[in-house]
Amino acid sequence: MENKSIDDIDLRLLDALQCDASLSNQALAEQVHVSPPTCLRRVKRLRELGLIERQVALLSPDRLAPVIGHGLTAIVEVSLDRQDAQSLDAFEARVATDDAVQQCWRVSPGPDFVLVAQAPDMPGYLALAQRLFTQDANVRNVKTFFSVKRAKFEPRLHLAPQRRASA
After folding, report:
1. What is the tens place of the pLDDT at every residue in 101-141?
2. b/e per residue, 88-124, with b = 16+ CB within 10 A?
3. Domains of the chain
4. Is the pTM higher than 0.70?
5. What distance in Å separates the CA atoms of residue 79 and residue 111, rounded to the nearest whole number?
6. What ranges make up the beta strands (E) of 31-158?
7. Are residues 30 and 45 in contact, defined by beta-carbon separation less than 8 angstroms?
8. What pLDDT does residue 161 have?
């Protein structure tokens, strides 16, 4: 079994990749102050450990708007009638497969789920609501907030250096 411990170099690699995953291995190694072979080996290990889920491009909605339109971003609170594990899992699995749902959070207290969804326009949101909420007999309440401005969007996790145990 692979050792799952990570050190400060691993944390620096993860932090640098969060800022720019398109860095070449050479540039990443220079930034983190390790050799390129060490960098390559460590990044491969971090992927194998599942610490790096995937690498994606973050798109600019404002710059894409002239081409695809602004669309609607909806933050949706969903409460279910039954909150047993099977009902929660079933709802989560269903919304997770819908392309319009960008994020799905199971939360407590308050609603059972908070979703972030994207729709091209209000008829598109209505279709989403019909598909995900109205047709589900277990959905008790839905409260939707529409974004008027995105002030911050940062998927980066804050990675503090590991604390060493004192001897």
Report:
1. 999 999 999 999 999 999 999 999 999 999 999 999 999 99
2. beebeeebeeeebbeebeeeeeebbbbbebbbeeeeb
3. 8-48 (1.10.10.10), 61-146 (3.30.70.920)
4. yes
5. 5
6. 72-80, 101-106, 113-119, 139-146
7. no
8. 67
